[in-house]
Design brief:
This protein is mainly alpha-helical and 167 residues long. The chain has a domain of 103 residues. The protein has seven helices and four strands; from the N terminus they run ααααααββββα. The strands form two sheets. The protein has a two-stranded parallel ribbon. It has a two-stranded antiparallel ribbon with strand order 2-3.
Amino acid sequence: MNWKPYYRAELVRPEGRELIEGYFAEAEDDPKLDAALANRAILSFPHTALAYAGPLQARVIAALHRAGVERIIALGVLHTSAIPAPYAERLERLRDPAAPLEERRAAFSQLSGAFIPRGGSIPTPFGSLTIAPVEFTEAIRPDSGILKNEFSLDTFFSLLAFYCRTR
């Protein structure tokens, strides 16, 4: 199943927007997160479904705003079930214990690391988010299609865009 349209639809429904507004209204005061950020904490939260991830993500976003954070490094998981071709074939090669070791290593190097969306921005139902310039390395590289179906940060990016546009 392609989860991207499912989670996007959840966000843009009138009921979804009401939930988002309510989550942010409840997140305006959060001394625990404010204290954690003041101590340079790394904040982690569940991803995807609005009903359980939304309240926690709203708390994080509102706390980041209150702390004056201007740059966010968002790390998401890469769901192997969402990997498109030809990357899915490389994943199968990586998982195949009968495949030659060099082929498995090559597949791992193509699938590991961080992938940054191309184009300088991330589209969301509530507007685009700007991606700060990144110095690419062997471990941090521009996306060449592996993120096509990935959805792990879609809810967070959407809530972040919503918050930025409404505050």
